[in-house]
Amino acid sequence: MISQNSIESYKEQDIPEQFHFIGGRKQKSQTGNTVEVFSPRNGKLLTTLASGDVEDINLAVSSAKQAFESGIWSNKSPAERKKVLIRFADLIESHAMEIAVLGVRDNGTEINMALKAEPGSAASTFRYYGEAIDKLYGEIAPTSNSILGLIERSPVGVVGVIVPWNFPLMIGAWKVAPALAAGNSVVLKPSETASLSLLRLAELAVEAGLPEGVFNVVTGKGSVVGEALALHMDVDVLAFTGSGFVGRRLLEYSARSNLKHIYLELGGKSPNIIFPDVADLDKAASAAVNGIFRNSGQVCIAGSRLLVHKSIYEQFLELIIQKTQQMTVGDPLDQSSDIGAINSAVQLQQNLDYVETAKSEGAILCSGGQQILVGSGGYYMQPTIFKDVTAEMQIAQQEVFGPILCVIPFEDEDDAVRIANSTNYGLAAGVWTANLEVAHRMIRKIKSGVIHVNCYGGSDLTVPLGGLKQSGNGHDKSLHAIEKYTCLKSAWINLG
Ligand code: NAD
Fold this sequence. Notes:
This protein is an alpha/beta fold. It has 16 helices and 21 strands.
């Protein structure tokens, strides 16, 4: 249990005007422009960010490139890089509450979740890749005796990173940590509505001993700063988490510039499937509710489609409605809130529009559906459940990215697989059954990057996360992530 006092000491502090972090120091935008940041807790102006432009990206990329070419980080031995990254992880941990509260103030995630998922994950991620990097070896190819074939992975150079607003630190760290561990320099562009914690992270990186220019953060609009980063000729790899809409644009930018590798972690419409033989229905119901409603459903792997066997459909529905109605929606900085705020007014309105769309398509609203706590000025919405949803409805096809659950009945295993695979997405899935054969068949048949069996949403750094189909083309986490930030080189040495 966190002490509410430790939250209180950070939550009302003034947040000064924010600047880019380029070349190891804070810098204003060259245009002098700013973007306003509003609090999802109460709708009030929180602070302003530097609104970056092409010139700011040029400066950050040139700073990153210069740092890379100087060898100040890229030529350090893996063991030396490890020391800095572990020191960085320790610093994140010792500032965990400060960073978590700062992050909640602009992104709205409930503090209990944010503390663990944001600084908690970021610290573990920097520690994991720091510890890993001096344990990776190159290869010697099985050539003939007269040849020595060497295969090695080298850093790519400048890595561009673009992240969304739902878990900026965790997702940012999943990309920045392996990129830095491998010896690259990084330019990161956070979301306009979740930049604060990442700007603080960049300061801590320098305090930990990361040389100036190796990690830069440029804030501002996606269509300006993000586009400039993705079009830049000196960015060698771009790692992105966000929507498919922007992901497609990045592929175009790469084609129009230097054919940089683009790694995409995109959205999902993940099915959570409940078979009638599930050992503990109550546990499955709690997991289903948490799997969609924590962080107001603003989770890429959210189990937003609940597929329930027709024989237990009404019983299970009743259980999840009961559990959902026990959840408290409230100030994300009050640790008694199970669900915090929606990230922005725009996102809240999109969710409310989806409620109307679902009703007009014939889905039955059985819980929630309304904006609440309107008097607070913040962006709050009831966790919402629709029943009798069919696989074809828009509410079952489109990624809402909000607290809306579609409950869909299924007939048998084949029907469950058909419905599960009926969207363009393939990020995550859940299967609840006591039958090992059914579980294994479902793992084979469901097209998604990760399948949870008799749980929903657990993971750690040892297991990669990435999507199939239109959920993406790359993987974060695990040693596999290092492949994205290194190039495979070989040497063919004639031994005479
Ligand atoms: P988004 O695609 O709107 O924005 C993501 C980032 O891209 C932001 O920093 C934004 O400023 C930037 N951007 C916007 N337009 C751009 C452009 N033209 N060029 C370059 N950059 C641009 O996504 P969002 O609304 O911030 O986040 C929600 C999305 O992220 C959802 O689709 C969600 O599923 C996805 N997501 C995926 C994962 C995963 O691991 N697969 C994890 C979290 C979130």
